[in-house]
Amino acid sequence: MQRGVVFWTAFNSYRSAKLARPGQPHPVTTAAWTAGRAALFLRFTLPSVMAQDIDAWVFVVLLDAELRALSERYLPPLEDDRIVYCYDDADGIERAARFDEVVLALIDADDLYAPSAARLMLECRAEWMYFRHGYALDIPTRRILRYDTIGTGPFFGRRMAVKELVAFDRDKRHPTHKAVAERHPVMLPPGQFCVTLHGLNTSSNARMRYVGRPLRQREVPLWLKNLV
User: What is the pLDDT of residues 145-181, one digit of tens each?
Assistant: First the structure.
């Protein structure tokens, strides 16, 4: 049986109500937002997925078909066939079908996973699993802090037979810790992810409540030094 991790991100298919402003276009539909998010995605998220220490993964980047011209302006073509820009869910499902069993792992398009994250998820045989404690990169100050996802929802994975994968959650209904806890998940080792703090995102709004003191340089893990 072939097993793999399906990383997926709702790049611009999800329009958060928290970012909406009365009488203005939603930021996700604008060139300024797309350019900024693409820069973060290409600088942090994509390299972190490509740096996984196993090859058994695919990365599905969910894109709004109505914003295709905008997406294509800022997201360059990629040669790696493990990565698919997905305007239609069928394309992502087809890419995942190289495996018999998958772990679905949501990652926001501005965050990072450690190189061992996919391997740890595959080694865990539970249906549900999650990472709670990791790191945060405060982009304006370049500080790295410890981060607890209790206020924003965990980095989680769900194991399933690939034939059960019929669609992706384009509205990114990220479950809370309480919702995930009801699935009796296995908590995986700490230090396997990093959120970025910038502008108007949920992690940034939670900054003062859920991060600890800045890490000293010697405390920053090598994988994070290499990626940031």
Answer: 999 988 778 899 999 999 999 999 877 666 777 888 8
Distance between CA atoms of residues 228 and 225, nearest Å:
5
The answer to whether the Cα torsion of 146, 226, 56, 36 is positive or negative is: positive
Q: Are 101 and 3 in contact (CB under 8 A)?
A: yes
Residue in 124, 143, 125 with CA at minimum distance from that of residue 135: 143
- Side-chain-facing half-sphere of 194: CA atoms under 13 Å: 32
Q: In the structure encoding, which two tokens stand for residue 97, read together? A: 């079908």
Token output for 170: 């384009």
Provide the edge-to-edge strand list for the sheet that holds 101-106: 83-86, 57-62, 3-10, 101-106, 155-161, 128-131, 186-187
**Could you give the angle at the alpha carbon of 116 between the alpha carbons of 112 and 120, nearest 5°?**
110
Q: Please tell me whether residue 116 adopts helix, strand or coil conformation.
A: coil
Amino acid letter for position 7: F
pTM of the model: 0.92
CA distance 42 to 75: 8
Q: DSSP H helical segments within the chain, as ranges?
A: 31-40, 46-50, 68-74, 89-96, 117-123, 177-181, 202-205, 207-210, 222-227
Cβ contacts of 218 within 8 Å, gap of 6 or more: none
Chain CA centroid to CA 203, Å:
13
**DSSP state, 61?**
E
Which pLDDT score, from 0 to 100, does residue 211 have? Answer: 67
Domains of the chain listed by start with CATH number: 3-130+153-189 (3.90.550)
